[in-house]
Amino acid sequence: MAKREVWNSKTAFVLAAIGSAIGLGNIWRFPYVTFENGGGAFLVAYFVCLFIAGIPLLMLEFSIGHMTKQAAPGAFAKLRPKMQWFGWFAVGVGFVIVTYYAIIMSWSVNYTWEAATLGWQDNMGQYANVEYALETTELEDMAVLTPVPERFWGTEFTDPVDESLYSIQSTGTFLVAWEGNLYAISSLGNADTFMSSPGDFFFNDFLGLTSEPWDMGTFRWPLLIGFIITWVWIVASVWKGTKTVSKVVFYTVFIPWGLLILFIIRGVTLPGAEAGISYYLTPVWSKLLNADIWLAAISQVFFSLSVGFAIMIAYGSFLPKKTNIAGFAIVIGIADALTAFCGGLAVFSALGYQATKMGVHITEVAQSGPGLAFVAYPHIISNLPGARIFGVLFFLMLLTLAVDSAFSLLEAATASVKDKWKLSHKKANLIVGGLCFLLGLPMLTGSGLYILDIADHFMNSFGLTIVVLVETIMIGWVIGAEKQRDYISDNSSFRIGQWWSICIRWLIPIGIIWMLFTEISARETPYGSFGLRSQEFLFGWLIMILLPIVSDLLANAKGKGKFPENIE
Ligand code: PHE
Predict the structure, then answer these.
(1) Ligand 1 lined by 96 (C-beta under 6 Å)
(2) Which residues sit opposite 157 in a β-bridge?
(3) Distance CA 17, CA 31 (A)
(4) Whose CA is nearest to atom 8 of ligand 1?
(5) Cα–Cα dist 468/501, whole Å
(6) 50 Cβ contact list (under 8 Å, min separation 6)
(7) I want to staple 348 with a disulfide (CB 3.0 to 4.6 A). Which of 56, 276, 477, 563 is the partner?
(8) pLDDT value at residue 313
(9) Is the pLDDT of residue 47 over 50?
(10) Dist. CA 304 → ligand 1 center (Å)
(11) What CA–CA distances, in Å, run from 104 to 201, 396, 536?
(12) CB-based burial, 207-240: b 16+ in 10 Å, e otherwise
């Protein structure tokens, strides 16, 4: 019988799993979620969730892979033949994620170029102009001032007493607080030029974002270049499976770590950095009593550790017989958390600098998601000496962080297809990668960001939570948590205590059921920065309905030979 491929070394496995875990989530999601949820207090919740949910689940997924020597579908089929579809469901969740994760990477490829040529600078210049104009011109001379409708008061613009400059990201309108009143600069001499901002460059010039999801706008050809480069890179990184991955991860883990250190040093030495860091970390302890902070912590832990996506099962299946499942899970969990924490330091020190410079509140410059990486951060970098170099390095950091998350997702799907149909690794790779590429194309249109946002929201709120819930019920209650705990202990350098079974049987499932319940009831109202309406959720629910159907079809499709086969 064929021998299953294995990692080149222990280090290669640990790095590959760390590489999958650390990604965009550490740089643009974690800092902001921490900041929004009580700073230092959130860190406490995060570490609690890491130890009672994240690390035990990593152990669980590694052990399922190690025990069955199969990627997710084969692994679940071996545990219970009827559950093969569920393995495909987990692969499907990862598959949807990689289609949009690659889009964000492709923006970074394009932005590396924009950074090198300071392509967004035109807009920066205009933005700076407004600042400059405000400093040097009598306000009344330069603009016809319209009092801002009162509905804005007390929302984004709390205290319009200072003489400060604000911008509303979505419209690019500038607001000026002047003598206790808040005004919009509605018509400058050349309003169009004056009113653009770095946000305009990203959303309008770059993405060509339309005003609503049903309007696809135009296909953004320049984005296709970055997209092709991204996919060639991802597919090449897993070309010969673990053999290639084992080599690639040395670069894709250490390079972003090195760059992150550089950005922390650059960040904390900027004037005003302390303001940002103190906002990021000042503990608001009372928030620990608030349920939301715990929900935010669990979902951040899952997303960040890449559990619930079939990846860690596939990666565990390539572990050699003699291994250290529990030890690896702890090292990987902590490395991921530390990276996220450092990401926050780098980002928030820079935001503190920017807020101080503009004389505005940090909430005006702090954003999560695309807004942070493609609007706020580039803007800050452009103000620094060596803007081009820092810009290029920043996007290289994002790309090298993201690529191993992306190829881990691809590898989870490829390994599953390969296991079932006994294809060559290359063929499986091309089929799955090609499919993701095609499905990603609609996201290169003017409504791409909406599609991405909806897919992201649904996969994180429902996809991965359902996977984790079923996993814990199956292992905790059907197969037996104690049996699995013994297996993990037998394959680790130390034995794990009963706490593990308690987490798997009780704490995690209860936490997830609560999360799902909260999410479903929250879906009555639009979510997120775009305020997407319920009709648009159609797309999200459609994916959620299609996933189990397709999974069932794949499970019932005839594989080659006997599936799952015992490979030893
Ligand atoms: N863990 C990755 C991050 O933090 C994202 C990811 C999720 C990667 C799921 C793979 C699977 O960005």
Answers:
(1) no
(2) 153
(3) 21
(4) 405
(5) 15
(6) 301, 305, 333, 337
(7) 276
(8) 96
(9) yes
(10) 5
(11) 16, 13, 21
(12) bbbbeebeeeeeebeebeebbebbbebbbebbee
Distance of CA 270 from the midpoint of ligand 1 (Å): 30
Which residue lies with its CA nearest to atom 11 of ligand 1?
Answer: 306
**pTM value?**
0.85
Residue range 157-162: mean pLDDT, rounded: 37
What's the average model confidence in pLDDT over 402-420? Answer: 95
Q: What is the CATH number of domain 10-121+211-556?
A: 1.20.1740.10
Q: Determine the distance separating the centroid of ligand 1 and the alpha carbon of 356, expressed in angstroms.
A: 32
Q: Which atom in ligand 1 lies closest to the alpha carbon of residue 94? A: 11
For residue 500, the model assigns a pLDDT of: 98
Residue 183 pLDDT class (50, 70, 90 cuts)? low
Please give the average per-residue pLDDT across 209-222, as a whole number.
Answer: 89
Per the CB < 8 A criterion, the answer to whether 504 and 56 are in contact is: yes
| DSSP string of 303-314, one letter each residue | HHHTTTSSHHHH
Length of the chain: 568
Average pLDDT over residues 239-264: 95
Tell me, using a 6 A CB cutoff, whether residue 21 lines ligand 1: yes
Q: Indicate the helix (H) or strand (E) that contains 86.
A: helix 84-117
Q: Are 31 and 348 in contact (CB under 8 A)?
A: yes
Does the CA dihedral 556-562-566-568 come out positive or negative? negative
With a cut of 80, say whether residue 127 has pLDDT above it: no
Of 80, 49, 60, 45, nearest to 504 (Cα)?
Answer: 60
CB burial class (10 A; 0-12, 13-18, 19+) of residue 13?
Answer: buried
* pLDDT, tens only, 367-387: 777 778 888 888 788 778 888
Average pLDDT, the chain: 85
560 or 528, higher pLDDT: 560
C-alpha 197/C-alpha 7 separation (Å) is: 48
- 20 Cβ below 6 A of ligand 1: yes
Q: Whose CA is nearest to atom 7 of ligand 1?
A: 306
What pLDDT, on the 0 to 100 scale, is given for residue 566? 47
Residues 467, 12: contact at Cβ < 8 Å?
A: no
